[in-house]
């Protein structure tokens, strides 16, 4: 049975579908977050920490 995405992840994926070739910085409070493949690329290019959401294991990274 597939895991239902959280509302935040669903919103991110909806926007990402519209711009699949862009790195999406998603504003979340005071930070701009990247998720999934965008986070992996962003962490490597920007030399910042790649982490994950503890609840669902989604890769993420962000900047203030």
Layout of helices and strands:
Layout: H1 7-18, E1 26-28, E2 31-35, H2 36-46, E3 51-52, E4 59-63
Antiparallel strand pairs: 1-2, 2-4, 3-4
How does this structure look, described?
The protein has 64 residues and is an alpha+beta fold. The chain has a single domain (7-63), classed as DNA repair protein MutS, domain I (MutS, DNA mismatch repair protein, domain I), CATH 3.40.1170. The protein has 2 helices and 4 strands, in the order αββαββ. It has helices at residues 7-18, 36-46; strands at residues 26-28, 31-35, 51-52, 59-63. A 4-stranded antiparallel sheet has the order 1-2-4-3. A hairpin with a 2-residue loop joins strand 1 and strand 2 (31-35). The protein is globular. It starts with 6 loop residues before the first helix and ends with a strand.
């Amino acid at each position: 049975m597939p895991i239902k995405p959280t509302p935040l992840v669903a919103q991110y994926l909806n926007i990402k579908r519209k711009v699949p070739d862009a790195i999406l910085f998603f504003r979340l409070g005071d930070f701009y977050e990247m998720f999934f493949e965008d986070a992996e690329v962003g962490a490597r290019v920007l030399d910042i920490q790649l982490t994950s959401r503890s609840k669902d294991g989604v890769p993420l990274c962000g900047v203030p």
